[in-house]
């Protein structure tokens, strides 16, 4: 399937011209050695919590290599303090650009200000921060998570058109305080609020992991005998929940309808097998666009303040058709 990335220039926001960055000193610990002309990019990744994240890391590492950009990569293991430490270390090492996917939305102003004072431009990838000072970063590339939640809600509303009985929904939220958890909850909630038959009877974080998705779903099933629908903020939690549902002697996709977000291979397989009913896509392949932005920002070119990833949705039939060519 063809995918394109659209560049959206948010109204009133212009990328600031760049000051010179410390490109002459990549500091210690550089993989390719100091003194090279390569752009040095420090990237702080959220962790390795999901299939999506693994594909995203690979996309970033492969694209950096392809573009001839020297990548300093760190895994924050889903902890904000680790990301802050990594960013401070990149500042100390005088990398040319810092990029990161913020584990949560709040609490970044101080470290972003430190990067700005050191004249190191910052690019946000995948997830947003809630800083009101948008001069603290150059651009933000990633999905529209509210829109993803809306797409999940739209499918549910269509699926239950003409039915009047109450629909009991349980929700597995992503990491507490993260942009995708906040926004996917909101988008979905806004759509289903229009019809009082939809009731979210339980909603809890599963931290975007399969293990936690299973554990929380087991608790949901014990406390609520009449669950009609599961909305999981990612495939991995949905896949964990499927194990819990089967363990409880129920049929996922039939006794309990399941909607997830991401469309990674394992999720798409479960969709094709009839265990998931609908998946909203969230593309992890941000690497090529990120490297393009890194080069432009480093060259002092104007970049859009917001780059939105274009994504689709999948039914069970569509999953069967695209599975053989799915990249991740
Ligand atoms: O930020 C993107 C989200 O993070 C993905 O949907 C999820 O799988 C990941 O862990």
From TrEMBL:
<dbReference type="Pfam" id="PF13407">
    <property type="entry name" value="Peripla_BP_4"/>
</dbReference>
<dbReference type="InterPro" id="IPR028082">
    <property type="entry name" value="Peripla_BP_I"/>
</dbReference>
<feature type="signal peptide">
    <location>
        <begin position="1"/>
        <end position="22"/>
    </location>
</feature>
<comment type="similarity">
    <text>Belongs to the bacterial solute-binding protein 2 family.</text>
</comment>
<protein>
    <submittedName>
        <fullName>LacI family transcriptional regulator</fullName>
    </submittedName>
</protein>
<feature type="domain" description="Periplasmic binding protein">
    <location>
        <begin position="42"/>
        <end position="300"/>
    </location>
</feature>
<dbReference type="InterPro" id="IPR025997">
    <property type="entry name" value="SBP_2_dom"/>
</dbReference>
<keyword id="KW-0732">Signal</keyword>
